[in-house]
Amino acid sequence: MTITDSFFTKWHQRCAVFCVVLLPLSACKEQKPAQKVAPKANFVMAHPQDVELLVELTGRITPMRVSEVRPQVNGYLYNRLFEEGTDVTKDQQLYQVDPRPYQAALDNAQGKLNSDLATFKAQTLKLKRYGPLKNMDAVSRQDYDDTLAAQEATKATIDSDRANVRQAQLNLEYTGINATISGRISRSIQTQGALMATNQTDPVAIITQLDPIFVDIIEPTAEQLRLRSRMAGGKLQTLRGAAHVPIDLILEDDTRYPLQANLLFTEVVTNQETGSVIQRAIVRNPEKMLLSGMYVRAVMHEGMETAFMVPQEAVMRGLDEKPYLYVIDKDNVVKRRDIEVQRMQETYWVTTKGVEAGDRILVSNPTSYRPGQKVAPEEGRTPVATVPN
């Protein structure tokens, strides 16, 4: 067989094609697989600290005393002697009922008393004269006994007359309707010339004592039991054997009332529908800023307790609404930790259970991580969470 130039040319071309095909395959065998980089994760160290326990509850303002002004005698309203909506003092006269009928009744009772006193005096003198005559049989025994019995009856009548005089004097005094407590008086329900009656349904005015004033706070029974537990454990300051719990009041416009209230007592009956109890506090109200029925938020200072301040972005909630967070262990692996939170303080959750000293709490967008994931920890709380690659 004769080898020609065309043969070598074709063989050379085929070898070139074969080498071109083998080169990428050999390159693929020599290339190493890329290593997976652990995502960066910001964390903060958990440090215990003394934190004041504050519990925020709802409450209503309740007056300490309320007096319904009612007439104690019948008659026409003669005059009103106060300005509506002003402060009145105890025993200040508010109304004047027409006193003339009651003055006449007093005069009549006094006249009856005077008449019976005169009769009694005459009978006493008569007995004095009958005494010696009775012994000499100048006066019959029957006349003497009749005069003595008449004197005793007159004495009893005089006692009744004196009682009638006192009652007439009281009725005359009742024509002047006075304030029974000091406080702020409402508008007058009845005007001058109206007929007053002792059995009327509505009061003529209402006096409300506003200083000091009560705050009725609605507290869940679970929170109330926790407070009792803290009292039993000696974690609350005590005053005269009772819990001394200062209370800040937040008004409806979100302003803080300048004076603190103090807890007085807790009701012994629980509302079965709401599962709550009423706690009553007292607060000074010199400017009359707090009014009866006003809604407030009560922030109760329950004392100091060792707790952890966890950034709010680190806390998540599961389907059961229970809070949890992620911590980074010593092997830089993310682990889930269930916790208990008390309240928000600025941008932190006050946590009393589930966190230990030295824990590295994951704070950089924790929802982007999963338990068991390895991360590259970096200490620091980022103001804006970052999503890992």
Distance between the terminal alpha carbons, to the nearest Å? Answer: 67 Å
Uncertain parts: 25-29, 384-389
> Helix and strand string, N-terminal first?
HEEEEEHHEEEEHEEEEEEEEEEEEE
Strand proportion, as a percent range, falls in 35-45%
Global Rg: 47 Å
Give a count of the beta strands, DSSP E runs of length 2 or more.
Answer: 22
Return the average pLDDT rounded to an integer. Answer: 83
Q: Give the strand order of the largest sheet, numbering strands 1, 2, ... along the chain.
A: 2-9-14-13-12-15
Count of alpha and pi helical runs: 4
Structural class call reads alpha+beta
Oligomer state of the chains in this structure: single chain
Fraction of helical residues: 25-40%
Largest sheet: 6 strands, antiparallel, barrel
The coarse overall form would be: elongated
Which characteristics define this entry?
about 30% helix, 4 helices, alpha+beta, disordered C terminus, 6-stranded antiparallel barrel, 4-stranded antiparallel sheet, elongated, about 400 residues
Describe what this molecule looks like in 3D:
By secondary structure, the chain is an alpha+beta fold. The chain has four helices and 22 strands. Strand 10 (238-239) and strand 11 (242-243) form a beta hairpin. Helix 2 runs antiparallel to helix 3. Residues 25-29 and 384-389 have low confidence and may be disordered.
